[in-house]
Structure formats: structure tokens, C-alpha cells
Design a protein that fits this description.
Length: 1418
């Protein structure tokens, strides 16, 4: 059997036709199912032979492909961004937030912070695994990298060995500095590559790179000096190094401290207090921008170009001045030693511009407190208050000198701060808390000052939280007691179950989706626990004390669900420094699980409460049993340790424990009446902030009346966000799936319990009441039932809405949830939100279609309170009485598209409706119906008054190709053609027919020989209405119907069937309808027009393909499909030229060859695009030179020949263009002057307008109104008929015709003479737009070489090109052509042309970067 299969395989393999068809299917079909809708695009797949971009290959880790291309000499497109991508793979940067999240998920941190059910043995094993992973991570910095560092370094080595001229197109050392890649620096600086390090690059590293990269550069200085004689650590550098480091935005303290600890790296400036320096500042401010003290050289080194042009002065004999440190940067330093030293050296410039009323923190240690006080005295105190300053300093010195054993220096210093600096917010408050005593001089401590309201406080303020608003004490007692009896039993049972399931859940957790959940706080503004800018008071002063170079410093809020203080940034100083000794001892006992100590302590302090910061992070024991012991103790005590004004601390502790122990194992019993009164509001608040652990434990612990939920459900309902403006669907991580399902189950269970209890109550009540008014009783019963179910319905629907947002949820899981929910609990509001996610669950291709609807970005931007997201809970703003943009809610027919339609399945669990059925219905509702049906809206408002028909169908065409459905693409084109033929009056885009693909067919082409003209007789059914009062145009609007649906009418009508003969073109198997002239046109009287202006070129309707659509089409269609596509616009002016431009950009040699073999494509320039367009000029040149050199042989005359052809075509379009120009809204003044009976003014306007129209023609026949569908020719003819008629009548006058002819000839002569003068004044050989100089300035050596190879001795290097190349830092190409051996095809070189050499030397001598190394100029 295997032998037969092998024989069959080789038969297929040797059959070229079958093999090609197989590969074609593999290439055309999308095999991968992506999770992100944006991942469906035509750039997903590309043949290796067509993959040239180094950036693409590096980004996708195609290292073997790169090696193969280098080995075989294949072209690789290398640019600045490609090198940046490659070097970034070797970055020693700190982990980004995304990498950190993935690291956390992959490694599954198994300490108590994020493992739910691990026993001690598993903890130990997994911690060992984590250590191994951390070690591996040091070798491979970016977790996403497929290969090790050595593999990427090998690629760099291969480029340096075999493609150095192409690879060294920028300062590679600076690029390594920018990406923080010290290994790259080490490779490049050493032999055999010996890449130079410029002093400016070293300065750039101090400001922008990390410590390891800076150290590598310093270690490389001896090699750099040996090779090039360039010192990096000069006196000039030393005098500004500290200032450079302090300028940093990140790692400010780390880098500054490193420099300060290495005396060879800096020189201390003279103290600012010196009189002569003060006089110099006051009387003679420095004009030297480089060393100006007051400005301290705010360098902007982020620009790739030479950003220091103003520093290109001659520094010879100029004094090198010191740079000082600004105060606002000084106080951002976190090192006590740096602050103290800089203040002692007196090198801090300026004073505080802000009120420093929160500068001194209670949690600062003794040394830092001393420095804090001295800073305030020096920089924030009035100079005239010298006596008080001296007194305070004496007190500090006295405290510092006290050596008594029982003397508490820290306490006394804090006391001094509280007395002498009472404006420091909350300092005395925390002093009183820490030491439990008041200061005699100050009296009672004031209450803690409130900060700006965060979203939590806004929420509680909104709810009017007061004890008076809640229920009485008896109800609270019943609420408290209803779970007390079952509490201990459930905890014990669930504890045993959880320990048994521990290993199984751990394995499942490792298999969950590693993608981190999106941070939605910018969208929803509902969770402030992770935000750093919460308060102005002491609790958030830690923001200025965040530790540097730690993973935590990068994670502001890693989790959106169940977030708590674990995810806040770590502080340099321990917050517990401001707690009392008793509180710190108590917290230590919690961390160690020392229940005996806690119980003994509480006997001695029965009223003890935990006075800690609301941002405190509770550290828990390593063993779950110890955690549960402490929890059980708190439960028994009713959590009395958390007093009435510390509910946030209470909730924080619960969140800390439930992050380790599943909430189902825990219960809460609160003894504080204040907290008990708040429980229902806290329950609601837990949903608002998505603290589901907290919600679950509260909901399991108490039976709530849920009155707050029935009143405030709108607060949560506003959160109906679908996606952001970039098309990213907002979802949550899959790890929350089970919890949300369990919460739905719990809520349903509670609802059923309540229903049973209510039925029992009603039965008891009905047995003792009369049944005389049964219908009234029934109505009352129904109303009561709906009222009681409302809170539960809200909770369930809320969780269902969160459930469908979970990544990777299956239809089975969704069906299970729907099966357990009673039907009366379902709500219909925000159904579009659910439909969107149902579609996304079925296939992200559906959500992609919705996201990419034209006008979606306009709707998002115009929505009230827009945060850059599509929110179903918000209403759009109205502009001019009607919303702008695409609102899905307005067009989606929910009677058709519902859950059953999208996710409904039969008994065999097969979907009832196919993918195509759903997609075509979406297209019908969200595109076709809007284009065709009269639904009482101005559809063009969707796209800001542009042509919705054009934008919508362009989006549909592109979408079909993005998802790999060419069949749907061709169906859409057929629909568009039918629509345009049936309703020509509705088409807004018109084109001229001259120079079309039909007219450009080459006589010797295969297409020309297969071209036939055929005639067909077609039946036409006409309908005459018996009752109609509408105009012709209105009738056309009303009669438009969708191609995918029929529309019935009640109008009485009679039908008549006739026949018509249609002429068509046939090429191969494709038929092309010859278009009629557009009915929307100017009916010129040809008898009144003179020779130059007739015949007027025929205008036809056309479908305008947008740039993104054309890019997609020309990237994926094969040659035969390209021809079929061209035939769609076979009669459009220069359509073949337009296609060619896109194919060139895509480097589609196969399709380019087809075009040039069959059509007369004329070149206006070559290469087609300038190098700035970031495409491969080299590949274009190589292909054209090798296959169609005759097209560009006379390269210097291409543009002039093109312009001559345009001059001949200009008269054919002049009159229509003239009318169009005068009718534009912005030219209303010109129009009014033109229609006056003043011939002199009219003639001036004619000449000026012709000149403008000629200028527009020179700009690729394009004008700004082509981007505004309200100002295109068809719209003008429809909407401004009166103006058009007046202009037409004037233009057709004989006098006007004569002057038009005279003015036309004069303008054409001007243009011809202008081109001649340009050739004289700027010869092609010296024109910077010639292909060689363009590539030279851009630094493309490979393209330059192939150009001069095919055009030997026709180009030269100019002085201006050298200047421009240096401005772009393209010194590599100058060094390349400095070698005479590389200039053999050029007219000049640097040896023979002394003026060129002198200019180069002068430019380099004054260059801020390259002036340091000129020894190669020999």
C-alpha cells in the first residue's frame, strides 16, 4: 500500500500542471485561523522568493531565509527600520509590559501572589522552574524571540562580512545604543569590523540608553582610540556628563549615580555661590548655546538627522564651560547620596517653581529626611529668613550628634519636621499614627487631608453613601447571622476539596491563553486601584519614589480583573516606615502565619485596628493552611481589625487572600456595623471595578436584597465597548472564564432560592386572603415577580456580557450558560453588543468586517465623551442635525441576525447557517442596503459627505481579498458593474476615455489578437407607473434595489418587454460592456467651438478604487486576474498606468512584464517613485534594465516627452476643467468676476484659470476636489446647474473662444519655454532629481551602482548632493565613492575633482559628528 502511495505521489509531483494547481491552492487559501481580526490581511503570506524586506524576515524570525539569501546573493532590502528591528532582538532593555505579562503567564509564578491551589511541594518545584526560566531569560532578553542571541549576532556578522556596504547605511553604534544592545556594540567595535564610536553617540547613550550599554561603550573607548584616535571621555564630556544624565526621562538616578561613582567620568562645576559666577549670570549671560548655564543643553538626540546644526561653530580657542543641574530635575533623583552631594557642591541651578507641600514623606529613612529638610531650607525658604534656617540646621545637627542609647533619632527628626514644616500634608497625621502620641507644640493631629476624588470616591459620592440611607439594625443582624452556622463547615470541606484538585488546576492554568487582558481603564475609567495619579496627599507621593530597573516599575496595572495593590509600582522606600511598631509587628505576624502571636497581642490590645495605607500590599504566608488559619481568626473576630474608615484596607486584604485561595473556600462575617451597612454597596462596587473575587466572597457570605442593583444598573451598563479606533477587539483573558461561569451559576442558584421562598410566602398569604379579584391578583403577582427578579437579571446579564468578551470561549460553554439561565432573566438591551461578540466567537472575520466599515472612525471620534473606542452605551454627537460616522446600531437588523442565526446548531452540533450565508447577510445589511435602499438617511453623512457607495464597496473588495476570498471579490465587481449600468445618474466618479487600456493595447500583444467585438440582443422590461408625482431623479433613487434582495411595491404599474442590441468586447473568455457616455455631462454645442477644443474627450462613469484597495489587489492577484481586473476599467484614462504604479511598488515583476508586453505604458520618470517611498528602487531598476531597457534608454528625456504628450491632451479636457474650476466653492469670487460684462477682467481670469488647470494636469491629473466628493465634476453638474449653464453660454461665445485659444497657446508656450530653461539652468546631470543623485543622497549604493552601470559616464557626484547626504547621515555612501575604484562609471571622482574634495573636507570639518575623524581623507 505504501508503495502505491509513493508511486502516486511521484506521478503527481512530476505533473507540472497538477503541482502548480496544488501550490496555487496552498498560496491562495488562508489556512490559519487567527484570534485577532486585524491579523487577517494580504500581508500574512508571501512566497520566500518575493520576500525581500529584512524587517519582515527579522520580525518573523526567518533567520534561515536570511542566511540563504546572503549565501546566494539574493536581494535583501535593508533600511533604517530593518536594522532597528534586528538590533532590537538583542536588546538588553527592561521587559516591556507585554513581555512581562507573557513572562508571568508562561512561567506561572508559583509563590503566593498568583497561584490558587498549590501545596508546599508544588510550590518548591515550580519556584525552581521559575529560577531556571529567569536564568534563561537573561540570555534571551525578549521572550518572544524564537532564536538565541548568538543566532541574531551571526546574522549581523554575515551582513558585515558579505553585505557591509548595504548594511552600514547608518551609524550602527548609535542604532545599538538606541536599542540598548551592548552585545552588538561589542561585536562591531572589535576586530575585524572596527566600527567607529563618535563622541556624539556616547552623549546620546548617556541620555537615552541603559547602564549595560553605556558600560560597553566606556569599555570600548581604548579600542576606539587605538583605531581612530578619538577619545570619548574628554574634558568637554566630563563637564556636562552629570547634566546629561539628569536630563533623562527614565533611569535618571541609576545612570547619574553610575557616573557620580566613577570620578573619571565627570568634573564638578564651580559652586554657584561664587560671586564671579553670579555676576557672569546676571550681567553677561552666555550666548554659547552649547554651554549656556541657564539652559543646560537640553539635547534632543532622538532625531536620526543631525539635530545640532546650531552647534556647528568653530570651537577652537573657545572656553569649555560647565553645565549645571536644574532644580526640577534635581528633585526627581531618588538617591539620598546624590541629592546630598549635589546640594553640597552647590551645582543645582534655580529654585522650586512648585509648592513643595508634599515633599517630605513620613516613610523616608533618617538620612533621606535630613536631606529633605536641607533641600527645603535651601531652595524653598525665603532667603531673608536666615535666622530660622540657622535654628533648624542647629536642631538637626544636635539630633545627629546625640549618641545616647535610648535616644530615637528618627522619631526626633520626624517631630522636628512636624513642628517646623506644618504645611507638609498629612505628616503630623502619620506621626500620630506611628507613635500614638501628640506633639505638645501642635496639639491634636488634624484629620488626614483629602485628595482629588478618584473614580472610587466619585462612585461613592454618587451613591450618596450615608448610614442613614441604609436598613435598620435588625435587618443587618439577620443579614449577618444567615451564614454563620454553615461557615465553618463549608470552609473545612472546600479546603480539602481544593487541596485534592490542586495539581489538576495547576496544569490547566499552564495551558491557558498567555495573552494578557487589555487595560481598559482609559476606556471605562472605572478602576483606579492601579493608577498612579490618585492623590495629592501622602499616599501617592510614592510615585516620585518608584524604584528603577525593576519589573514592577513597568507594570502599572497588569490585571484589569481582580486588580489590587500587588500590581502597583514598588517604592524605593518601605511604606511601613511610617506605621507604628505594633502595626509592623502585626503585619509581620500575618506574613509569617504566626496566629499565636496575633491572638496574644489582641488579648493585650482588644481595640487594635490595622492603620495602614490603602495602597498597602499584604504579604501572606507561603502555605495556604497558614493563610486559612489567619483568615479563620479574622472571620471569628468579624474582621474587627479593620475599623470603620478603613474599608479599602479591608477589601485589599480580601483581594490579597483571594488571589491565592479560591473565593469559594472563604466566607466573610463583619462585626463592624459601619462596614455591614456598606456591604451591598461594596458588592455593587466590586462589579463596577471587576473585582470578581471580592464579589464572589461577599455574595456567598450574605443574602443581599440587591436594592442598589435595581437603582444603579445604568452605571455598569455604559461599559459596552466593542473595539478601539485601531480595530483592536477589547477582550479579557481566558483564565477568568471558569470564574465568570461559576458566578452565573451562583446567581441563578440564589435567584431560584428566592423564588422558592417567595412562593412559600405567597402560598401562606393566599390561604388567609380572599380570591375575589383573581385577575388583579395575577397582575400584581406578575409585577412583583418581575420586580424581584430585576436585580438578579441585571447581575446575570452583566456577567453574560463579560463572558462573551472572554478570549477563546467556545460555543459549548456559551450554550451551557444559556441553558441554565431562566428565560425571564434575559434582557434585550444592548443587543448589538452581544451580536458583535457572537459574530466574533463564530469567526473573527465577521468582527473584522464590522470594524472596517467606512465611517467607523468618524463615529468613534464624534461619540460623546469619546475615548477612542466604539461604545454601544454612548450616543454619538450630532453634527448638523444628524450623527456623523457608521453606527452599527442603526443598520443591523436584529430580527435576522441574532444568536440562533449566528451560533445556532443542529443535533449534530453543526452550525445551521454557513459562514458565507452570514457574511453575505452582513454585507447586505451594512453595505448593499445602505447603498441601494431609500431608508430615509443621507448615506454620505456616514463618510463625512464623501461618496459612501465608493467607500463602502472599496472596503468590501479589500475585505474579501484580506480573508482570501477571491470568488467574493469577483462577485462584488460584477455587482458594482450592474449597479453602475443601471443607475448611471447616481455615480459620482467620472473619467475621460482617451489613453485607456483599450487604446493602449500594443498591436503585437496576444490580447490585441484575441480582441473581438460582438453584438448581443438583450430583453429589457420597462415599468410605467400609473400614479407618480416624483421627478426623474427621485424615481431613480426610489427604484434602486439591492442585488441580494427584492423589494415589493404597492404602486400600480404596467410592464412592457422590449429588446435592445448591446455592443461588447471579448478578450479570451471575458466579455466587456462598452460604456455609454455619462448622462451627467455638459452638452456643448460643437458648432460653436473652435478647433483646439473639439472633439471634447468622452466622459464615462467609473468606479474609483482607493489606494488601500489597489495595494491589496495588486499584491494578491495573479497575472490572469490582473488582466481581468484591468478589463473592469478597460475604458478609463491611463488605468493601465495606474496599475503599473502599484505593481512597481509591490515589486511584481511577473505582472509588470505582462503589462509592458501588452500595453503601451509611458514613463514620466524612472525609477517610478523617489527612494523616500520605502520601496525597492533596485528591484525595479534591475528588472526594467534587464528586460525592457528600451523603455528607459533615453532616461534624460523621459519627463520632457511625457510633458509634451500632456500638452497635446490638454485642449481636449480644458473646457470641462474650466467649468469645474469656476464652480468650486472656494472659487466663488473668481466666478462672480468672470460672469461680469467686463472683457478685460474676464480675459485675465481665463488666462489665470488655464494656467492653474495646466498646473493641476502636471500634478498627475489630480486636484484636491477629487478627494472631496461634494466638489467632483458629477456633483457640480448636478448641484450647480445654473452656474454651469451661465459659464457654458459665455464660453461658447466666439470672442471667448478666440481668447481661450490665444491664452491656451500662450500658456503652453510658457510651459515649453520653462522646461527648456530648466534644462539649461539645471542640467539633468546636476539635477538632484536624476535617479543617480536621488539614490546617492538617500544612501542606496546598490541602486546607484546599477544605474551607472547601464548609463556609463552619464552621471556625476555634485557638491550639493554631498551636503544633502551628510544632512541625512549618509556618510557611508560618500566613503564608498571616495574609493576611486568604485567610480569607474562616473564622470568625476574625489581624486580628479579637487573642488569636490575641498567641499567634502569643509563639510566634514564643520559637521558636529563626523568632524572627529577625518584621517580617511587622504
Amino acid at each position: 500500500m505504501s508503495t502505491k502511495k509513493e508511486i502516486l505521489f511521484w506521478k503527481v509531483f512530476k505533473n507540472k500542471y497538477i503541482l502548480n494547481e496544488i501550490f496555487k491552492q496552498i498560496h491562495n487559501n488562508e489556512w490559519v485561523e487567527y484570534k485577532d481580526p486585524n491579523q487577517y490581511n494580504v500581508n500574512n503570506r508571501c512566497k520566500f522568493g518575493n520576500t525581500h524586506s529584512l524587517k519582515t524576515m527579522v520580525k518573523n524570525d526567518l533567520l534561515p531565509l536570511i542566511k540563504d539569501k546572503i549565501k546566494h546573493g539574493d536581494h535583501i532590502q535593508i533600511d533604517y527600520f530593518s536594522i532597528l528591528e534586528l538590533f532590537s532582538k538583542l536588546s538588553k532593555k527592561q521587559l516591556t509590559l507585554q513581555q512581562y505579562n507573557q513572562y508571568q503567564n508562561n512561567n506561572n509564578n508559583n509563590n503566593n501572589n498568583n497561584n490558587n491551589n498549590n501545596n508546599n511541594n508544588n510550590n518548591n518545584n515550580n519556584n525552581n522552574n521559575n529560577n531556571n526560566n529567569n536564568n534563561n531569560n537573561n540570555n534571551n532578553n525578549n521572550n518572544n524571540n524564537k532564536y538565541e542571541d548568538k543566532d541574531y549576532l551571526e546574522i549581523i556578522e554575515l551582513f558585515m562580512k558579505h553585505r557591509r556596504d548595504e548594511f552600514e547605511i547608518t551609524d550602527l553604534i548609535k542604532m545599538a545604543v538606541k536599542t540598548c544592545s551592548p552585545d552588538v556594540i561589542n561585536l562591531l567595535v572589535n576586530e575585524p569590523y572596527s566600527v567607529i564610536i563618535y563622541p556624539k553617540t556616547f552623549e546620546y547613550a548617556i541620555i537615552n540608553s541603559n547602564l549595560s550599554t553605556i558600560k560597553e561603550i566606556i569599555n570600548s573607548e581604548p579600542i576606539n582610540f587605538k583605531n581612530y584616535g578619538i577619545k570619548l571621555i574628554t574634558e568637554e564630556f566630563k563637564r556636562k556628563s552629570l547634566s546629561l544624565a539628569v536630563h533623562r526621562k527614565t533611569l535618571k538616578t541609576t545612570i547619574t549615580e553610575f557616573i557620580f561613582n566613577n570620578q573619571s567620568l565627570y568634573s564638578i562645576p564651580p559652586p554657584l555661590s561664587l560671586k564671579d559666577l553670579q555676576q557672569q549670570q546676571q550681567q553677561q549671560p552666555s550666548t554659547n548655546k552649547k554651554f549656556k548655564i541657564s539652559e543646560t543643553s537640553k539635547l534632543n538626540l532622538n532625531n536620526n538627522s543631525n539635530e545640532d546644526d546650531d552647534e556647528e561653530e568653530d570651537d577652537v580657542n573657545k572656553e569649555i564651560k560647565y553645565e549645571y543641574i536644574r532644580f526640577d530635575e534635581f528633585i526627581q533623583l531618588k538617591s539620598t547620596n546624590l541629592l546630598k552631594s549635589f546640594m553640597q557642591f552647590d551645582i543645582v541651578l534655580g529654585i522650586s517653581k512648585k509648592k513643595l507641600d508634599s515633599f517630605i514623606k513620613m516613610f523616608h529613612p533618617y538620612d533621606r529626611l535630613q536631606v529633605d529638610i536641607r533641600i527645603l531650607l535651601k531652595y524653598d525658604f525665603p532667603i531673608e529668613d536666615k535666622t530660622r534656617i540657622t535654628t533648624i540646621l542647629d536642631k538637626i545637627n544636635k539630633i545627629d550628634a546625640n549618641q545616647q542609647i535610648d535616644f530615637n533619632k528618627l522619631k526626633e527628626l520626624r517631630k522636628l519636621v512636624a513642628i517646623e514644616f506644618p504645611e507638609q500634608k498629612n505628616f503630623y497625621f502619620y506621626y500620630k499614627n506611628a507613635y500614638g502620641e501628640k506633639i505638645a507644640e501642635l496639639g491634636e493631629a488634624p484629620p488626614k487631608s483629602k485628595s482629588n476624588l478618584n473614580t472610587n470616591e466619585d462612585f461613592f459620592e454618587y451613591l450618596n453613601l450615608t448610614v442613614d440611607d441604609l436598613e435598620n439594625e435588625d435587618e443587618l443582624n439577620s443579614l449577618e447571622n444567615n451564614v454563620e452556622e454553615e461557615q465553618n463547615q463549608e470552609v473545612e470541606q472546600q479546603q480539602q476539596q481544593q487541596q485534592q484538585q490542586q495539581q489538576q488546576q495547576q496544569q490547566q492554568q499552564q495551558q491557558e491563553d498567555s495573552d494578557s487582558d487589555l487595560d481598559l481603564d482609559s476606556v471605562l475609567d472605572s478602576d483606579s486601584e492601579g493608577s498612579e495619579n490618585l492623590e495629592i496627599g501622602s499616599d501617592v507621593e510614592i510615585e516620585n519614589d518608584v524604584e528603577e530597573e525593576t519589573i514592577n516599575s513597568l507594570v502599572n496595572k497588569k490585571e484589569y480583573i481582580n486588580s489590587y495593590n500587588k500590581y502597583r509600582k514598588a517604592s524605593v522606600y518601605d511604606l511601613s516606615n511610617r506605621y507604628s511598631d505594633d502595626v509592623n509587628s502585626y503585619l509581620k505576624a500575618i506574613e509569617e502565619g504566626n496566629l499565636e502571636w496575633i491572638q496574644e497581642f489582641e488579648k493585650q490590645h482588644p481595640n487594635f485596628t490595622l492603620e495602614v495605607s490603602e495602597f498597602h500590599y499584604f504579604r501572606l504566608p507561603e502555605k495556604i493552611l497558614d493563610i486559612l488559619k489567619i483568615w479563620s481568626h479574622f472571620f471569628t473576630c468579624g474582621f474587627k481589625q479593620f475599623n470603620q474608615d478603613r474599608e479599602k484596607v479591608f477589601l485589599e486584604y480580601i483581594s490579597s487572600v483571594t488571589d491565592v485561595v479560591p473565593p469559594s473556600m472563604l466566607r466573610v462575617r463583619v462585626s463592624s456595623k459601619f462596614l455591614l451597612l456598606k456591604l451591598e454597596i461594596l458588592l455593587f462596587d466590586s462589579l463596577l471595578k471587576k473585582k470578581y473575587n471580592l464579589f464572589e466572597i461577599l455574595f456567598r457570605s450574605y443574602h443581599f436584597k440587591l436594592e442598589e442593583f435595581s437603582q444603579e444598573d445604568e452605571i455598569l451598563n455604559y461599559e459596552k465597548v466593542l473595539f478601539n479606533i485601531d480595530g483592536k477587539v477589547l477582550q479579557f483573558d481566558n483564565k477568568y472564564l471558569k470564574q465568570i461561569i461559576s458566578l452565573i451559576e451562583l446567581t441563578v442558584e440564589r435567584f431560584k432560592e428566592k423564588e422558592i421562598n417567595e412562593k412559600k410566602t405567597k402560598t401562606t398569604s393566599s390561604s388567609s386572603s380572599s380570591s375575589s379579584s383573581s385577575s388583579s391578583s395575577s397582575s400584581s403577582s406578575s409585577s412583583s415577580s418581575n420586580q424581584s427578579s430585576s436585580p438578579f437579571a441585571f447581575i446575570i446579564n452583566y456577567f453574560c456580557d463579560q463572558l462573551i468578551r472572554i478570549k477563546g470561549i467556545t460555543v459549548d460553554e456559551l450554550e451551557y450558560v444559556r441553558s441554565i439561565i431562566p428565560i425571564q432573566l434575559y434582557r434585550k438591551q444592548f443587543e448589538v453588543y452581544r451580536i458583535f461578540f457572537y459574530l466574533h466567537i463564530r469567526s473573527p472575520k465577521f468582527s473584522k468586517y464590522i470594524i472596517e466599515r467606512p465611517g467607523m472612525d468618524l463615529f468613534i471620534e464624534s461619540s460623546e465623551g469619546s475615548t477612542g473606542h466604539y461604545n454601544c452605551g454612548e450616543e454619538p454627537l450630532e453634527d448638523g442635525g444628524e450623527p456623523v460616522g457608521f453606527d452599527i446600531r442603526k443598520y443591523l437588523n436584529l430580527d435576522i441576525i441574532n444568536y440562533d442565526y449566528i451560533l445556532g446548531r443542529d443535533k449534530n452540533k453543526k452550525f445551521i447557517n454557513s459562514f458565507d450565508t452570514i457574511l453575505k447577510e452582513l454585507m447586505k445589511q451594512l453595505s448593499f442596503d445602505i447603498c441601494t435602499n431609500d431608508i430615509g438617511i443621507n448615506r454620505d453623512r456616514i463618510v463625512d459627505d464623501q461618496d459612501f457607495f465608493n467607500h463602502s464597496l472599496n472596503a468590501d473588495l479589500k475585505y474579501c481579498l484580506d480573508i482570501g476570498r477571491k470568488d467574493l471579490f469577483w462577485e462584488l465587481l460584477d455587482w458594482i458593474e450592474q449597479y453602475m449600468n443601471k443607475y448611471p445618474n447616481l455615480i459620482k466618479h467620472q473619467v475621460y476615455q482617451y489613453g485607456s487600456p483599450l487604446e493602449s493595447l500594443l498591436p503585437n500583444s496576444k490580447l490585441f489578437s484575441n480582441l473581438k467585438t460582438i453584438k448581443k440582443t438583450l430583453p429589457i422590461t420597462s415599468t410605467s407607473k400609473s400614479k407618480s408625482t416624483s421627478t426623474k431623479e427621485e424615481e431613480e433613487e426610489e427604484e434602486v434595489v439591492s442585488a441580494s434582495a427584492s423589494v415589493s411595491t404597492t404602486t400600480l404599474s404596467s410592464k412592457t418587454t422590449t429588446t435592445t442590441t448591446t455592443t461588447k468586447l471579448k478578450i479570451n473568455n471575458y466579455e466587456i460592456t462598452i460604456p455609454n457616455e455619462s448622462p451627467v455631462k455638459i452638452d456643448w454645442n460643437l458648432n460653436k467651438l473652435i478647433e483646439p477644443f473639439k472633439p471634447i474627450s468622452k466622459i464615462i462613469n467609473s468606479f474609483k478604487f482607493l489606494d488601500k484597495t489597489m495595494d491589496t489587489i495588486c499584491l494578491v492577484l495573479d497575472v490572469n486576474e490582473i488582466q481581468r481586473f484591468i478589463q473592469f476599467n478597460f475604458f478609463e484614462n491611463d488605468f493601465q498606468f495606474s496599475i503599473y504604479s502599484y505593481l512597481v511598488y509591490m515589486n511584481r515583476d511577473d505582472a509588470i512584464s505582462f503589462l509592458l508586453d501588452n500595453y503601451n505604458v509611458k514613463f514620466d520618470n524612472f525609477p517610478f517613485f523617489p527612494p523616500e517611498r520605502k520601496y525597492s528602487q533596485y528591484l525595479e531598476c534591475k528588472y526594467i534594465f534587464e528586460n525592457h531597457f528600451e523603455k528607459v534608454k533615453n532616461i534624460s528625456n523621459l519627463n520632457s516627452e511625457w510633458c509634451d504628450q500632456k500638452d497635446l491632451e490638454f485642449p481636449m479636457i480644458l473646457l470641462n476643467g474650466f467649468v469645474k474650476y469656476l464652480c468650486k466653492e472656494k472659487n466663488i469670487t473668481t466666478y462672480n468676476r468672470f460672469i461680469q460684462d467686463n472683457l478685460q477682467i474676464r480675459n485675465k481670469i481665463i488666462k489665470k484659470t488655464i494656467r492653474k488647470l495646466k498646473q493641476i494636469q502636471g500634478d498627475d491629473d489630480d486636484d484636491d476636489e477629487d478627494y472631496d466628493d461634494t466638489q467632483n465634476f458629477a456633483s457640480i453638474l448636478k448641484n450647480q446647474k445654473h452656474k454651469v449653464s451661465i459659464i457654458k453660454s459665455i464660453v461658447e461665445q466666439s470672442d471667448t473662444q478666440s481668447f481661450l485659444k490665444l491664452a491656451l497657446e500662450e500658456v503652453l508656450v510658457e510651459y515649453r519655454e520653462g522646461r527648456k530653461m530648466e534644462k539649461i539652468n539645471s542640467p539633468f546631470i546636476e539635477n538632484q532629481k536624476n535617479p543617480f543623485l536621488q539614490s546617492f543622497i538617500y544612501g542606496d549604493i546598490k541602486t546607484c551602482n546599477i544605474i551607472i552601470k547601464y548609463y556609463p559616464n552619464q552621471f556625476k557626484i555634485t557638491t550639493n548632493s554631498i551636503t544633502q547626504a551628510l544632512k541625512l547621515d549618509r556618510i557611508h555612501i560618500i566613503k564608498y565613492y571616495y574609493d576611486v575604484n568604485n567610480c569607474k562609471y562616473l564622470i568625476n571622482n574625489f581624486k580628479s575633482d579637487r573642488n569636490l574634495f575641498k567641499h567634502l573636507k569643509n563639510e566634514l570639518s564643520n559637521h558636529p559628528v563626523y568632524k572627529y575623524h577625518l584621517t580617511w581623507l587622504v
